[in-house]
């Protein structure tokens, strides 16, 4: 079970990382602008690379504890982008607004999942 949870987390992170390169415009639009220097595309690609690196660390048993801790940090770090998305989507349909706001509490189980993977890997 431990390996399955870790590999599933690695798969989720891999899919997210690949998405940053496959559909970068979506991610560019949710990059919080004022506090971050550089272009949104830079941050889209940087966060995609980070997700892929964290995925690799979580997938490998030797680096899994550190990778899972990095996943926690990543999930916390991207929270402001999810808040920006929810605020920016206030003019969208009710369904799209529900998706945007619904993503915010989903960060909690993602963090707990990564912490469990870390705990199980130690």
Question: How would the blueprint of this fold be written?
Answer:
Blueprint lengths: L1 H21 L1 H5 L11 H20 L4 H14 L1 H10 L5 H28 L1
Quick structural gist:
The protein has one domain. It contains six helices and no strands.
Keywords:
membrane; 122 residues; DoxX family protein; mainly alpha; signal; transmembrane; transmembrane helix
Count of the domains: 1
Helix content: over 70%
- Outline the biggest β-sheet: none
Looking at the structure, what is the overall shape? globular
Keywords: Membrane, Signal, Transmembrane, Transmembrane helix
Transmembrane segments: 66-83
Protein name: DoxX family protein
Signal peptide: 1-21
Structure explained in plain terms:
With 122 residues, the protein is mostly helical. The protein has helices spanning 2-22, 24-28, 40-59, 64-77, 79-88, 94-121. Helix 1 packs antiparallel against helix 3 (40-59) and helix 1 packs across helix 6 (94-121). The longest helix is centred in the C-terminal third of the chain and has 28 residues, at 94-121. The protein is globular and about 45 Å long.
């Amino acid at each position: 079970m431990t390996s399955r949870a870790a590999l599933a987390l690695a798969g989720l992170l891999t899919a997210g990382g690949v998405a940053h390169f496959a559909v970068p415009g979506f991610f560019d639009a949710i990059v919080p602008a004022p506090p971050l220097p550089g272009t949104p595309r830079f941050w889209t690609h940087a966060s995609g690379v980070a997700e892929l690196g964290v995925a690799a660390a979580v997938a490998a048993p030797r680096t899994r504890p550190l990778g899972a801790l990095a996943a926690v940090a990543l999930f916390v770090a991207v929270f402001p982008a999810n808040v920006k998305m929810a605020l920016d989507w206030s003019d969208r349909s009710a369904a799209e607004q529900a998706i945007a706001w619904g993503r915010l509490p989903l960060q909690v189980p993602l963090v707990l999942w990564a912490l469990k993977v870390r705990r199980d890997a130690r």
